[in-house]
UniProtKB/TrEMBL annotation:
Catalyzes the reversible oxidation of malate to oxaloacetate. This is Malate dehydrogenase. It is an enzyme of class 1 (oxidoreductase). GO terms for molecular function: L-malate dehydrogenase (NAD+) activity. InterPro entries: L-lactate/malate_DH, Lactate/malate_DH_C, Lactate/malate_DH_N, Lactate_DH/Glyco_Ohase_4_C, Malate_DH_AS, Malate_DH_type2, NAD(P)-bd_dom_sf.
Length: 344
């Protein structure tokens, strides 16, 4: 656990890019580790991104954040990860219109091996890694494969954005604030095959009494089959393809929501999730028959600074079929990067 007052070294890669810019100010203001933990920021960029990261560093100084102990901008991964307690691996190319995230495998995969090795060489013993750069699950797998001395459970990838999107869409449809939704899960890959699952979700009524979401949806749509139709035909594709929708509407991929989700992910990892679970892509321990070692999204709780996959959830046959397809995609990505020599 992190002691109050003990400065933590947080490395952000791609710090000169869009998501980096959106997350740095929140990290420095205490949104990541709370109001009592000073932060030392290490900003890693490639040479052509250094000026942008240096500009962000100047602005961070101008904010006079009380918690910001120091900022260092570098293009040397060894320096960036030396003593790092938390690494947010954002630096990599975003996709454009018409691309799938998997199309970035060859371009971005090569970034994560050397960064995994640099983490292995210099990070603090309690290092926690959150991969944001796409394809995030497989990039986390690559980084972990180059860091044999770091426990595999410390390498995670971001599916919190998918989780938050699912909660947002569900709350909208049920006409309740997001604070009244609990127990949503994302399974599989951070891709269009991901599986948003509301079968264990609950919704609180105005008296604070919790009800199963499938029952509430059946009431809203008039029958369970009608609710199922909405889930399969609208909810799941909307959440799974939200990244593409944002690209189409904004002209470039999600930034503010991605930065917010990455901060949620690390904050919950460090501070704990409490009774609710969230969704995190982490190395499978074989739970739910996901092949061991594959970095797949699971419903998870953080307790004592460690993620624990929620066990014992019943999986409907329809959800199982979708999970199987997403896991098959992860296996194909793993095999593709292995063939490229990226797993070491
Ligand atoms: N997992 C998720 O939920 C989400 C992931 N993403 C992904 O995050 C990544 C970053 O997105 P943006 O910030 O919008 O892109 P961006 O292009 O604005 O910034 C990326 C930055 O990374 C830097 N970079 C490239 N290679 C690097 C390396 N080897 N070391 C350090 N820095 C390096 C670039 O110079 C650039 O400044 C993309 O791969 C995008 O697809 C985006 C949204 C959500
Ligand atoms: O869709 C993209 O390329 C960016 C991303 O991962 C997301 O918004 O979920």
């Amino acid at each position: 656990m992190i002691e109050s007052g003990e400065p933590q070294t947080i490395t952000v890669t791609g710090a000169g890019g869009q998501i980096g810019y959106a997350m740095l100010f929140r990290i420095a203001s205490g949104a990541l580790l709370g109001p009592d933990v000073p932060v030392r920021l290490r900003l890693l960029e490639i040479p052509q991104g250094l000026r942008s990261a240096q500009g962000a560093a100047l602005e961070l100084g101008d904010c006079a954040f009380g918690l910001l102990d120091s900022i260092e901008v570098t293009d040397d991964p060894a320096r960036a990860f030396d003593g790092a307690n938390i690494a947010l691996l954002v630096g990599s190319r975003p996709r454009g219109p018409g691309m799938e995230r998997g199309d970035l495998l060859a371009a971005n995969g090569a970034i994560f091996g050397p960064q995994g090795a640099a983490l292995n060489a210099g990070a603090a013993d309690d290092i926690r890694v959150a991969v944001v750069g796409n394809p995030a699950n497989t990039n986390a797998l690559i980084a972990a494969a180059h860091a044999p001395d770091i426990p595999g459970e410390r390498f995670t990838a971001l599916t919190r954005l998918d989780h938050n999107r699912a909660v947002g869409q569900l709350a909208l449809r049920l006409g309740v604030p997001v604070s009244r939704i609990s127990g949503v899960s994302i399974w599989g890959n951070h891709s269009a095959t991901q599986v948003p699952d509301i079968n264990h979700a609950t919704v609180a009524d105005e008296h604070g009494v919790w009800h199963p979401v499938p029952e509430r949806l059946a009431e809203v749509f008039g029958s369970a089959p009608a609710a199922e139709q909405w889930l399969a035909g609208e909810f799941i594709p909307r959440v799974a393809k939200r990244g593409a929708e944002i690209i189409e509407v904004r002209g470039s991929s999600s930034v503010g929501s991605a930065a917010a989700a990455a901060i949620d992910h690390v904050r919950d990892w460090v501070a704990g999730t409490g009774a609710d679970h969230t969704s995190v892509a982490l190395a499978s321990d074989g739970s739910y028959a996901v092949p061991q070692g594959l970095v797949s999204s699971f419903p998870a709780r953080s307790v004592g600074g460690q993620w624990h996959i929620v066990q014992g959830l019943s999986i409907t046959p329809a959800v199982q079929l979708r999970i199987d397809a997403s896991v098959a995609e992860l296996v194909a990505e793993r095999d593709a990067v292995a063939a490229l020599g990226l797993l070491g």
